[in-house]
Write a structure and sequence with these properties.
The protein is built from 14 helices and eight strands. With 320 residues, the chain is an alpha/beta fold. An eight-stranded mixed beta sheet has the order 3-2-1-4-5-6-7-8, with helices on both faces.
Length: 320
């Protein structure tokens, strides 16, 4: 099958290579010449514009959109809608909000172009291990492009999960769960790091937990890699980004009155990691000092002062 791959970043380029390795033909489009050259090196045809890509595709034309959510995806889907014809298929595999899928499908349906939303998980390891694919769309549309999904996914790693929007919805929840799992690992290892009296080897523990432990998982495999001495985790800033899916998951939980305390807490922890000011924590310390006379630590204390300010020992009966 011949497919246009729109967006040749880490995911798009690796997906293009996996498709070629499984016997498909790929026409890669990216605004960056270096990205196009990289996929050309392993056998992909390339295009400098969507128009050039379109000219190299055969009917039914198929394009996989793998660009950032928002305006880049909006613009790409709109332009493909102008170039493609009835019976062609646009697969949208970025982390778009599932609510946008219906609008894309409706926009393309005006010309009888199929739209498929493909939640895609696997990251940079997907080239070797395959990509878990959660696909939404009509049965007719999915059947046309199913050979692509079979090639990209590992055995039993692909499913048509429902109508348009279902793929992105399932992927959104998947990423929310991912937030919670990673937070749990991070907190557990932080607690063990704090137990100085045992002088625990965190890398060793991550390694043995991978075999037979109830908490073993691929994320634990990655934890073991991150804790290897050569990885120098001490050089990484404790600043954790979120890319939208966790927020959307929590918002959906609010809208549907479904309690997600673990996922919500993990999202808020990411926000906290980026706050250098930590105003709330400063106010908490000040309030404890106000009502109970509890000691506060000033910046001069942290950077070489004489010790905590605010009266030393907490007042009798002080709380919190």
């Amino acid at each position: 099958m011949r497919i246009g791959m729109v967006g040749l970043g880490k995911m798009g380029a690796n997906m293009a290579k996996r498709l070629i390795d499984h016997g498909h033909e790929v026409v890669g489009f990216d605004l960056g010449a270096e990205a196009r050259e990289a996929v050309a090196a392993f056998g992909a045809a390339t295009a400098a514009t969507l128009e050039e890509m379109d000219a190299q595709l055969s009917e039914p034309k198929v394009a996989w959109v793998m660009v950032p959510a928002g305006k880049p995806t909006d613009d790409t889907v709109a332009r493909l809608g102008e170039l493609f014809s009835a019976g062609d298929v646009v697969i949208e595999g970025g982390n778009s909000n599932y609510k946008e899928a219906a609008a894309y499908a409706e926009q393309l349906a005006a010309k009888e172009i199929h739209y498929v939303d493909a939640g895609t998980s696997g990251g940079v390891w997907g080239l070797e291990n395959g990509y878990c694919l959660m696909v939404g769309g009509t049965a007719e549309a999915v059947a046309i492009v199913e050979p692509i999904f079979v090639a990209l996914a590992p055995k039993d790693g692909y499913a048509h999960v429902g109508p348009v929007g279902a793929g992105h919805f399932v992927k959104m929840v998947h990423n929310g769960i991912e937030y919670g799992l990673m937070q749990a690992y991070a907190e557990g290892f932080d607690l063990m790091r704090a137990a100085k009296e045992f002088d625990l080897d965190l890398h060793q523990i991550a390694s043995i937990w991978r075999y037979g432990s109830v908490v073993r998982s691929w994320l634990l495999d990655l934890t073991e890699l991150a804790l290897r001495p050569a990885a120098h985790i001490e050089n990484i800033e404790p600043y954790v980004v979120d890319t939208g899916e966790g927020r959307w998951t929590v918002q959906e939980a609010v809208d549907r009155s479904v309690p997600l305390p673990v996922i919500a807490a993990s999202l808020f922890e990411r926000f906290a990691s980026r706050d250098e000011e930590r105003f709330a924590d400063r106010l908490l310390a000040a309030l404890r000092n106000q009502f109970g006379g509890h000691a506060v630590v000033t910046l001069s204390d942290v950077h070489g002062g004489d010790g905590p300010a605010g009266g030393g020992e907490p007042a009798a009966g002080g709380a919190a």
